[in-house]
Amino acid sequence: MSTTSDGRLRADPGDRLVIRGHRLGEPERDGEILEALGSGGTPPFRVRWSDTGAETILFPGSDAYVDRLERKAAR
Predict the structure, then answer these.
(1) Is the CB of residue 46 less than 8 Å from the CB of residue 35?
(2) Among residues 27, 32, 36, 45, which one has the fewest Cβ atoms lying within 10 Å of its Cβ?
(3) Residue 51: CB partners within 8 Å, gap ≥ 6?
(4) Helix, strand, coil tally for the chain in percent (to 5)
(5) Predicted pLDDT at 13
(6) CA gyration radius, the chain
C-alpha cells in the first residue's frame, strides 16, 4: 500500500485502485489510475474502471487501497 506520511493514499498513473466490497460476499471493484490530481500523487484520482470502462474522478475512502505498478529502473 502506498500512503503519504499523513496517511493519504499516493499513486502514479498506471497504478491500480481497489475498492473493497462493502458487504459480505460483495466483490472488489478496481480500476487503472490515469491521473493523480492532488499534489505529490494524492487524491483526487482520475480512474478508468475495469468493469465498465467508465472514467471518474474520486476521493477514495478508507475502503480503498492502491496496488503499485512495478516500475523498471531507467537504463
Answers:
(1) yes
(2) 27
(3) 29
(4) 5, 35, 60
(5) 96
(6) 13
Three-class DSSP category at 70? coil
Q: Which residue has the cell 498506471?
A: 14
Phi/psi region, residue 25 (left: phi>0; alpha: psi -120 to 50; beta: rest), is left
The CA-atom distances, in angstroms, between 4 and each of 15, 19, 21, 73 are 15, 19, 24, 22
Instruction: Return the C-alpha cell found at 52.
Output: 465498465
Look-up: residue for cell 478496481? 30
**Owner of C-alpha cell 529502473:** 73
Per-residue pLDDT tens over the stretch 37-74: 999 999 999 999 999 999 999 999 999 999 987 765 44
Cα 45 to Cα 74: distance, rounded to the nearest angstrom: 26
* Cα dihedral 57, 60, 63, 65 sign: positive
